[in-house]
Fold each of these.
Amino acid sequence: MLHEIKLKEDYIEPVLSGNKNFEVRLNDRGYQKGDLVKFKAVSRQGVTYVEPELENATFEITYVHSGLGLQEGYVVFGIERK
């Protein structure tokens, strides 16, 4: 499954460089290991914009954690650039 989700501009460089290799999200999409993620850039003001390197990047979910330490309904998932 492919998930297209927003990513605030403060996190774009860390995600693209691999320094931030996880996401904490409300699990309203049923994230699963092996799913793919494409991010859409969002400014601090909440406006979606095109960030070419991010638009051309796809990430695979490598691990999903829920429960212990997280608010109910949330997950942490590991990502790896494909």
Amino acid sequence: MTPQMRQNVVGEACTWLNTPYHHQGNLKGVGVDCVMVMIEVYKACGLIPDDVDPRPYTHDWHMHRSEETYLAGVQALADPVDIPLPGDIALFRFGRCVSHAGIVIKWPVIIHAFIEHGAVVLTDISKSAALGNRLHGFYTLRH
């Protein structure tokens, strides 16, 4: 991604702050979950196709399966990186597999829809007991 694309992603992501958490939601200000906020942000910035939509999915799919469904979806659109830049994806492991993500604002700060907070929030991973030890890795979108 170019620096301008990264700035656009961060700017768009911030417009989703305080949107309530809602499983499978994708409406800014109304309700969204962690995967759909990323999809809607990247779509708004023209970085992924409009037809990307993993729904339907259950809220606890990651607790009962070992298939890396979430990770495979990210890998279809992005490549792993060692050092995240603004606009990149941070992935987290809950349950048996990768099942949560956020958009990097400036590492270690991410923006994400987090059920624990009930909304889209900014989180400093270095200060988060809920996420800090669950980090799986980082990805950057192909363009």
Amino acid sequence: MKNLIFLVMAAAVAAGIGYADQFAGSVVVPVGRTAANDGRQMYASYCASCHGMDGKGNGPVAPALKRQPADLSVLSRNNGGRFPAERVHAVLQFGEEAAAHRTAEMPVWGPVLTRMDVSAPQPEMRALRVSNLSRYLQSLQVK
């Protein structure tokens, strides 16, 4: 039984890497398992490589991308002082090919986040992960 669980986890991580490898060229964001209740850890693992730990779009992978990653620290400022939680949730789950990213360079994290918790109901865990990651992004907003 342990071998089966390990095999399923390994397959989920491998599938996640495939979803995360949507960058220009050969840039790959490694997808490891993170705690569903730790938005900071998820951000550091999945977002900071492009957006930087401060959210300003200055991560170490940013120069390899076709376009500068979005400055996530000004989402509230750019939305009349209100953090756009619903929009952030949608982008995290489904990606975006609109004005903010202009291309599909940003990985679609919804499927990756869904596959991380094979022992729990997946829609609920994905929602928990997206919510906690969104809350962490809200904490990065410049005042």
Amino acid sequence: MSGAQRYSRTISAEVGEIERRLRALERNLERAGGAASATVKASAESLGDTVASTLFGWADRFRQSANVLGDQSTAFGKDAAKFGRNTLNEVSARTERYPFIALGVAVAVGVLIGFASRSRD
């Protein structure tokens, strides 16, 4: 056998070995790609669940805050109505006890309003 033929067989064997290793590498990459794809999919689903859970938590807190604010507003409105009713009752009682003072206060307020509107003209 000549040296050229032995060299050709050696090269051919090495090329065959390279092709075999490339196919094995390709199979390994396909398996790794499939596993990575499954991992990425699971991670994306987990992230979606986490984001949804967080948003629902925020919405629930916002709803609770709105309920508390509504309750506080209702209580404030009741207190304001009570204060207004008490003030009206007090003014009515004092007007009945001191009618001339009430009349004097009303005249004074009327005069002040008259002066204020006159100075604008």
